[in-house]
Write a structure and sequence with these properties.
The chain contains two helices and four strands, in the order E-H-E-E-H-E. The protein is α+β, with helices and mostly antiparallel strands. A hairpin with a 2-residue loop joins strand 2 and strand 3. The longest helix has 5 residues.
Length: 56
């Protein structure tokens, strides 16, 4: 199951930099995870400083 980024995201970009398959992108100041590209490795969630990423 893919991960999602919650409203408590501070738009720091650390998740995007950590994603090994480039499934995270920024749009309109918010980061989003492409569920079709996400391999559910959890690297983004482990990197998030505010715990804004969880499993969908």
């Amino acid at each position: 199951m893919a991960h999602v980024i919650g409203d408590d995201c501070i738009s720091c970009g650390s998740c995007e930099a950590e994603c090994p398959v480039s499934a995270i992108s920024e749009g309109d100041g918010k980061y989003e995870i492409n569920a079709d590209a996400c391999i559910d490795c959890g690297a983004c969630a482990a990197q998030c400083p505010v715990g804004a990423i969880s499993e969908a």
